[in-house]
TrEMBL record:
The gene is cbiA. Residues 7-188 form the CobQ/CobB/MinD/ParA nucleotide binding domain. The active site is at C324. It is an enzyme of class 6 (ligase). It comes from Flammeovirga kamogawensis. It catalyses: cob(II)yrinate + 2 L-glutamine + 2 ATP + 2 H2O = cob(II)yrinate a,c diamide + 2 L-glutamate + 2 ADP + 2 phosphate + 2 H(+). Comprises of two domains. The C-terminal domain contains the binding site for glutamine and catalyzes the hydrolysis of this substrate to glutamate and ammonia. The N-terminal domain is anticipated to bind ATP and cobyrinate and catalyzes the ultimate synthesis of the diamide product. The ammonia produced via the glutaminase domain is probably translocated to the adjacent domain via a molecular tunnel, where it reacts with an activated intermediate. This is Cobyrinate a,c-diamide synthase. The a and c carboxylates of cobyrinate are activated for nucleophilic attack via formation of a phosphorylated intermediate by ATP. CbiA catalyzes first the amidation of the c-carboxylate, and then that of the a-carboxylate. Belongs to the CobB/CbiA family. Pfam families: CbiA, GATase_3. The record marks H419 as: Increases nucleophilicity of active site Cys.
């Protein structure tokens, strides 16, 4: 059986990678294909859109947070049960943490993936030729097999682009016109998370357009590879499994699928809702991932029973790991964009605020005594009143520069703005061991 695998890349951000990816995923699903989406980089939101488009949530592939061996094993495990693999790239093709390091281009090389290029051609015609030529020849080891042009409204416009592609030696695979009703809004301020399903109609329309103006069969032919045998390692049941409570609802839903899979390998995962549930499940560890708690701050504040339960759990030496939005929830107050303050769990005495939003972004390496962890920071909120709270560890950027991000510790609670990656063996065990200064039976 022959399969198809490709990575969607672009010269810059906002070229239409997500729009084209979602349309392709839905079009392939409509043809009865088993499609597995992936996302390059530390993105929680695009994988959710992938799930709407084809029924399977995208899996993150990240060259900074994952070792190369773990990344390849993860990829092979998922493609073993799919017919087509579509990997959505991040930013421009060569944009990495340092030059092209850990970029979409490097991911394509590590996994030996052909590249489908997406170019926003709204304001360009034959002049696209030197752009394509430059990307094709800048790194000859890359295999850019085809290009799809975005925001092209006429066949005559596409003809110029097609001629440019032919002269450069990259196959023109079609175009997608500007679709006013199909814009995918900014996905980083909670604007489109509350009701993801509203995008189903948009994705349907994009897919219909792709079937009309993109040569989908040709794309699949150009990205076909012979199936190889890969035996997925069987999970070994833990000797003394833990019960791990994971916060999951509208406010808390930013967690890598690999993180949850890792937790399931070492114990029983129980999901609970800080918005709707009034008590905590019986657990050995609580995990609060990030999300958009600021969009549900009133609901969270009104659930006083849950807030009290979390405070009591922490005071009684319960083990808690909290990331970004989860950390904000454990503070004393959360202040929304209007300046209104709402009481939170008060495990920590600081307050978080969305009043004066400022972007904090980047990969992070965390050193906690003898332990080292990888993660990613992305938030607009700020923390206030944390001067007297214990902080631990040292945090460095992808360029190995120390950053002022804080990791807060209280009893057996560890919280920070950093979204941790613990999808590889023993990483979660190391985190809990650091918190408790003892070995949990994992």
């Amino acid at each position: 059986m022959h399969k198809s695998s490709f990575i969607i890349a672009a010269p810059t951000s906002n070229s239409g990678k997500t729009t084209i990816t979602l349309g392709l995923l839905r079009a392939l699903k409509n043809r009865g294909k088993e499609v597995q989406p992936f996302k390059s980089g530390p993105d929680y939101i695009d994988p959710k859109f992938h799930g709407i488009a084809c029924g399977k949530t995208g899996v993150n592939l990240d060259l900074f947070m994952m070792t190369e061996q773990h990344l390849k094993e993860t990829y092979l495990d998922y493609i073993a049960t799919s017919e087509i693999q579509c990997i959505e790239g991040v930013m421009g093709l060569f944009d990495g943490a340092k030059k092209a390091e850990r970029s979409t281009a490097e991911l394509a090389k590590k996994l030996n993936l052909p590249i489908i290029f997406v170019v926003d051609a709204k304001a360009v015609a034959y002049s696209v030729a030197p752009l394509l030529y430059g990307f094709k020849n800048f790194d000859p080891s890359l295999n850019i097999v085809g290009v799809i042009f975005n925001r092209v409204n006429t066949k005559s416009h596409y003809k110029f682009l097609q001629e440019a592609s032919e002269d450069v030696g990259i196959k023109a695979l079609g175009y997608v016109p500007f679709l006013e009703d199909c814009k995918i809004q900014s996905r980083h301020l909670g604007l489109s998370i509350a009701n993801l399903k509203e995008y189903d109609k948009k994705i349907t329309a994009i897919a219909k357009q792709i079937e009309k103006t993109v040569h989908l069969n040709q794309l699949l032919d150009l990205t076909t590879y012979a199936e190889t045998t890969h035996t997925k390692q069987k999970a070994v049941p833990p000797i003394a499994p833990l019960t791990i409570g994971v916060a999951k609802d509208e406010a808390f839903n930013f967690s890598y699928s690999q993180n949850i899979n890792a937790l399931k390998k070492i114990g029983k995962v129980v999901f609970f809702s800080p918005i709707k549930d009034e008590k905590l499940p019986q657990t050995d560890v609580l995990y609060f991932p990030g999300g958009y708690p600021e969009c549900y701050v009133k609901n969270l504040a009104e659930n006083k029973a849950m807030l009290s339960a979390i405070k009591e759990y922490a005071e009684n030496e319960g083990v808690i790991i909290a990331e970004c939005g989860g950390m904000m929830y454990l503070g004393k107050n959360m202040i929304d964009q209007n300046g209104d303050s709402y009481p939170m769990a008060n495990v920590f005495s600081f307050s978080s605020s969305m009043k004066a939003m400022k972007l904090h972004l980047g990969y992070r390496t965390i050193h906690l005594d003898e332990y080292t962890f990888k993660g990613h920071e992305f938030h607009y909120s700020e923390v206030y009143g944390d001067e007297n709270i214990e902080t631990v560890g040292q945090i460095f950027s992808a360029r190995n520069q120390e950053v002022p991000t804080k990791i807060y510790k209280y009893k057996n609670v560890l919280a920070s703005y950093i979204h941790l990656y613990f999808g590889e063996a023993n990483q979660f065990k190391s985190i809990t061991n650091y918190i408790t200064d003892k070995t949990l039976q994992l």
